[in-house]
Amino acid sequence: MNIAELLNDKTIKAKEKVETISKWLLDGSLPTDELLVFAEKAKDPEKATCIEAIEFATRQNAKIADESVFAYVTKTLTENAPRVKWESAKVVGNIAHLFPTKLNKAITNLLTNSEHDGTVVRWAAAFALGEILKLKTKHNKDLLRAIEAICDREQDNGIKKKYLDAIKKTKK
After folding, report:
1. Between 82-95 and 104-113, two packed helices, what is the crossing angle to 10 degrees?
2. Domain extents in the chain
3. Does pTM surpass 0.70?
4. pLDDT tens digits, the chain, 172 residues: what are they?
5. Euclidean distance between CA atoms 110 and 96, whole angstroms
C-alpha cells in the first residue's frame, strides 16, 4: 500500500493513517523526501495528515528529519489551513534543536502564528517558540522580549503557561 491508497481508504480511521505513515517513516520504508513530494501536491486535509505523521515520528526520533523536512514545515507554517499550521509548528518544536543556526524564518512564521485566531494554532506556536527559547541560541534576547509581549496579550491560560514554562527554564 502506498501513501495515496492509505489516505484514500475510507475503512481506515484518521489516527491509524497517521500512525501507519509515522511507522513507515521510522522504519525507513518511506523516505521523508517521498512523503514531502506527496504532501506538496496534496489537498490541505491530506497534507495535514502527512505533517501530523512527521510530527508523530519526530516526537519518537527527531533525527529522521533532515533539512528538507525543516524547510518544508517552516514554509507550511504560512499556509491558510489551521491544521497544517499547527502540525507544522509541532514538528518545528520537535526538531528545532537539530537546526539551531537556521531558525530565523521559522521564528518569524511562528511569531505570526502566535497572533492567529485559532487557539490550537497559537498553542502549537507557543510550544515551538518555547522549545526554541530553551535552546538558548543567539535568538534568545529578541525572542524572549517577543514572548514576554505575547504573554501580556494572550488571553488563554494554557497558551500563556506554555510560554511561561519556557521562560522559567531559560532563566535557570
Report:
1. 140
2. 3-170
3. yes
4. 899 999 999 999 999 999 999 999 999 999 999 999 999 999 999 999 999 999 999 999 999 999 999 999 999 999 999 999 999 999 999 999 999 999 999 999 999 999 999 999 999 999 999 999 999 999 998 999 999 999 999 999 999 999 999 999 988 7
5. 12
Name 100's Cβ contacts closer than 8 Å, sequence gap at least 6: 135, 137
Q: Could you tell me the three cell numbers for 50?
A: 502527512
CATH of 3-170, one of 1.10.240.10, 1.25.40.10, 2.60.120.820, 1.25.10.10: 1.25.10.10
CA dist 1 to 21, 60, 140, 145, Å? Answer: 11, 23, 45, 48
